[in-house]
Design a protein that fits this description.
The chain has helices at residues 5-27, 30-34, 53-59, 74-94, 101-117, 125-140, 150-156, 164-187, 191-194, 199-205, 211-217, 221-237, 247-267, 273-280, 287-290, 303-331, 350-384, 389-417, 422-427, 430-439, 499-507, 516-527, 530-536, 565-570, and strands at residues 334-336, 341-343, 460-468, 475-477, 552-562, 583-587, 610-612, 619-621, 640-642. It has three domains: 1-147, no CATH class; 158-291 and 306-458, no CATH class; 460-642, no CATH class. It has 24 helices and nine strands.
Length: 653
């Protein structure tokens, strides 16, 4: 039986690296997001409710309750936590001695503390995923460091029979993440996913494209559709192989997931999310594969082993054949030799898929339970091999504690996992619901489902802010990362997440009243608050109003699309030496859907809301207690600053 010592170490290193990126990225944005002059001041989120210290900490688990003892406000405490988290994660990444239970406990507690006051800017699925992964990492991390001496380590190996139990939860988390991400694309009834055309829009309409997105967008449509089929295969059909008894099937599943995540990294800026997903895939590996011993062909020494090897090979071939047949049958794949393309279409209906999902959701839970039972039996067998009554007693205590923790976390995770199939969710054991409700505020388990629906099917909507001193001559305020200037190529941003740029993408999908933080952003720009300005441009001369704040700010809505290869060379540019523009845009105002796409400059017209200086005042709108269930990214904040939008003055005539 292959061990998992090397994959566990790789997992702990990877989690430390992701925590380092997450904390460092957040640290640079705290003054503008959560400072006293920020968009959503963090001090407003923590207000004592007259409860005792421990009940208050249990209800809203954050270390920032203790910042007044250090003479710091909430934002300063958040900066301190982020800085310490960055340094501690860097140490765990580089030093074997710091990959300890207490270190990962501190990292998880620090990020949970930030999450509790982060409001809408920290309510992304990858933040929830990092919290869940971080908690698993503290269980995977050793309570004490294993000795370096080979003889001592071999003697200790039987004393730690529980080591693989928490690591199995990482595999289960990866399964839930990938399977749900594939299923929700179809349960959403999004016509782009059902028509296999999602990728013809995705590269152009995603939040922060990369330079490679332009090239991926202009690949043939048939290849886009075939890529969607491959996505469904990798996200829905392959994840059950994570629990396959045949090692080569698990490795094939591993490489398919790595391929998908690497392609997403190349074509999109999704901060640390894809890196974190790659870290989760380490649960599919073993020591032999990482040590390079997999390629050594071993001749079976006896006929039972030879028979098992033959059965494993036949099972492997049967699985590959079944996957190939299923893809061809469900998506009607046909090779067109004349056009050198592959035609594909969805051959099943929404009702058929819903019935299939209803049929398989509960069996996938039983599959996970059976796999966990096998891990428990394996751990129990290892415990029987421990020599010495004292070592056996210590191993029994550890096995009991970690075994119960593993079973409890698995049970808790069934509740959010079942959200994707309502009837199964309703039939789930009531004890699981109660247990999940008890610890829900600790963010130990979440439901996942990325890219549920494609947006911007008629061009990506984009909000462009413009400022003016007189209300007639307008200057565009360009962000560092999000599309704005049509002549600027998309940048490479990951693993950093510019959280304001991300929320601007969500704001463009609806009216500004659906994004209460947006008018708070406008107020800070009218006031000329430097921390907020640095979120938009960290180099002051690039911000057009760095010398004096604007008197007026307005929001214009445009629709952007990637320029075509021919369009780049035929359009006149003010500077002939300037690079060709990768973007085209048109105004997205009412009644102008037939306007041509062009590199549209700031116009003198007014199609968006106006915010003159001094016209609006922030006020505090308390929300419900912290900790409600959220199933998708970019939800409105529970508590936030917002500005009244029903008393906006008219622009000057």
């Amino acid at each position: 039986m292959a061990g998992s010592r090397l994959p566990r170490q790789l997992f702990l290193q990877g989690v430390a690296a992701v925590f380092m990126f997450a904390f460092a990225s957040l640290y640079t944005q705290i003054p503008g997001l959560y400072g006293p002059e920020g968009i959503l001041p963090a001090r407003r989120t923590l207000r004592p409710q007259g409860k005792g210290r421990w009940p208050q900490l249990w209800e809203t688990p954050t270390l920032l309750w203790e910042t007044p003892l250090l003479g710091l406000d909430t934002a300063q405490g958040l900066e301190l936590l982020s800085l310490l988290g960055t340094l501690l994660a860097l140490g765990a990444l580089l030093l074997h001695q710091l990959r300890h239970f207490l270190v990962y406990l501190l990292l998880w507690a620090a990020y949970l503390s930030a999450y509790q006051v982060g409001q809408v800017f920290l309510y992304f699925q990858w933040d929830s995923l990092l919290l869940e992964t971080g908690f698993l990492a503290l269980l995977v991390a050793p309570l004490r460091l294993p000795p370096r001496h080979k003889h001592a380590q071999g003697r200790l190996a039987g004393v730690l029979p529980h080591e693989d139990l928490p690591f199995w939860l990482v595999r289960w988390l990866l399964f839930r993440l990938m399977f749900a991400s594939g299923v929700v694309k179809l349960t959403s009834r999004c016509p782009a996913w059902w028509g296999l055309t999602a990728l013809t829009y995705h590269f152009e309409t995603q939040c922060l494209p990369t330079p490679a997105s332009w090239f991926a967008h202009h690949l043939p449509v048939w290849l886009h559709k075939l890529s969607v089929v491959a996505t469904f295969l990798i996200e829905i059909a392959v994840p059950p192989l994570f629990f396959a008894p045949v090692r080569r099937l698990r490795l094939a599943a591993f490489y398919s997931q790595v391929l998908l995540q690497v392609l997403i990294i190349i074509t999109g800026n999704y901060n640390f999310f894809n890196l974190l997903t790659l870290v989760l895939t380490t649960a599919l590996l073993d020591d032999a594969h990482l040590a390079g011993n997999s390629r050594r062909k071993k001749t079976p020494s006896s006929w039972p082993k030879a028979l098992l090897a033959l059965l494993a090979l036949l099972l492997e071939l049967a699985v590959y054949g079944l996957l190939a047949f299923g893809v061809v049958y469900c998506f009607g794949l046909e090779v067109d030799w004349e056009q050198h393309s592959v035609h594909s279409k969805t051959t099943f209906t929404f009702h058929q898929f819903s019935q299939w999902l209803k049929m398989v959701t509960l069996p996938t839970m039983w599959l996970g339970a059976a796999s966990l039972a096998w891990e428990l039996l394996t751990a129990l067998w290892r415990w029987t091999q421990v020599r010495g009554w004292l070592q056996k007693f210590c191993a029994a205590v550890q096995l009991s504690v970690f075994g119960m923790a593993t079973v409890a976390l698995f049970t808790i995770s069934l509740v959010p996992y079942s959200y994707m199939e309502p009837s199964t969710h309703g039939r789930l054991w009531t004890g699981a619901h109660r247990l999940f409700g008890t610890v829900e505020h600790l963010q130990l388990a979440h439901s996942y489902g990325l890219f549920r629906r494609m947006t911007g099917l008629g061009g990506r909507p984009e909000v462009v802010l413009e400022g003016s001193y007189d209300g007639h001559h307008w200057t565009e305020i360009e962000f560092m990362y999000k599309p704005g200037n049509v002549s600027r190529a998309p940048p490479i941003v990951a693993p950093h997440q510019p959280r304001l740029d991300w929320q601007m993408w969500f704001a463009a999908l609806g009216p500004h009243t659906h994004s209460p933080w947006f008018t708070s952003l406008v107020l800070r720009l009218l006031q000329g608050k430097e921390p907020v300005i640095r979120l938009i441009q960290n180099h002051a001369p690039r911000y057009p109003f760095h010398k004096q704040p604007p008197t007026y700010v307005r929001a214009q809505r445009y629709k952007y699309r990637f320029s075509k290869p021919g369009e780049q060379g035929t359009r006149a540019r003010p500077d002939p030496a300037a690079p060709a523009a990768p973007w085209l845009r048109r105004s997205a105002g009412c009644g102008n859907s037939c306007l041509p796409w062009r590199p549209l400059p700031c116009s003198g017209g007014s199609s968006g809301p106006w915010w003159p200086l001094g016209s609006c005042r922030p006020f505090w709108a308390p929300g419900p207690p912290l900790g409600p269930r959220r199933r998708s990214t970019g939800q409105p904040p529970r508590r936030t600053w917002w500005l009244p939008a029903n008393k906006l003055p008219q622009p000057p005539t």
